[in-house]
Design a protein that fits this description.
The chain is an alpha/beta fold and 189 residues long. Strands 2-1-3-4-5 form a 5-stranded mixed β-sheet, with helices on both faces.
C-alpha cells in the first residue's frame, strides 16, 4: 500500500465516522494571533501544546527555519492577510533549537540536486536569471539572530500597522520550553 492510499483509506474512515466534528471552528483565530514557525516534524503537536493552543486558536504559517527572506514574498503576504482579513492582532515568530537550517550547506544541497537528476544546465539557467543559489539556500548560524531578523522585517514592513506586536521566541523541540527573544509589546506604538 502506498502512503497516498493509506492516507485516503484513513480519510474515508475519518469522514464517515464524522471525526472532523471534534475540530469544528471558524476561519478566524480565537486567540487573534498568527504564528510563523518552522516546518520541523517535532513541532507539529508540541508547539501547540507548549503554547496552550488548540484547533481554531491561531493561524499558523510554516516554512524551513521560520525565516522571512523577502518582504513581499508569500510568507509576508500570509501574515498581512492574517492581520487584515482574518483578525489576528499579534504575530509570533517561533524558531527552534537544533534546526536543520542551522546546518544547511547550500553547496551540499546543490550537489544533492545534481545527484537526484537536476542537470547543471537547469542550475545555470536559475543562476543566469539573477538567483544566487548559494545565498538563496543558505541557513543561519544563530536561531536567536534569525528569529530577531524575521521579527524586524515584519515589524518594519511598510504595510503592517505599528500597533501590532511582533514577538520572537525559540522553542526547544524536545521539551517545548519557550525562550523569549523579542517582546513585541515593548516595540508597539
Amino acid at each position: 500500500m502506498t502512503l497516498l492510499s493509506e492516507i485516503l483509506e484513513y480519510n474515508q474512515y475519518f469522514t464517515e465516522e464524522k471525526l472532523y466534528e471534534d475540530f469544528s471552528t471558524s476561519k478566524f483565530p480565537d486567540k487573534k494571533m498568527v504564528i510563523l514557525t518552522c516546518m520541523d516534524t517535532r513541532l507539529i503537536e508540541l508547539l501547540h501544546k507548549a503554547m496552550n493552543i488548540k484547533n481554531g486558536d491561531a493561524k499558523v504559517v510554516k516554512n524551513a527555519g521560520a525565516i522571512l527572506t523577502h518582504p513581499f514574498g508569500s510568507i509576508m503576504r500570509s501574515l498581512l492577510i492574517a492581520v487584515y482579513e482574518l483578525k489576528a492582532d499579534e504575530v509570533c515568530v517561533i524558531g527552534h533549537h537544533d534546526c536543520g537550517m542551522s546546518a544547511l550547506d547550500s553547496r551540499q544541497m546543490i550537489s544533492d540536486m545534481k545527484e537526484r537528476g537536476i542537470p547543471q544546465e537547469t542550475l545555470d539557467i536559475v543562476t543566469n536569471s539573477g538567483i544566487d543559489l548559494n545565498k538563496w539556500l543558505e541557513g543561519f548560524d544563530s536561531v536567536e539572530e534569525s528569529v530577531a531578523h524575521s521579527v524586524n522585517m515584519i515589524r518594519n514592513h511598510p504595510l503592517l500597522v505599528k500597533d501590532v506586536p511582533v514577538h520572537g521566541l525559540v522553542i526547544d523541540p524536545e521539551t517545548g520550553k519557550l525562550d523569549l527573544v523579542v517582546d513585541g509589546y515593548k516595540n508597539t506604538k
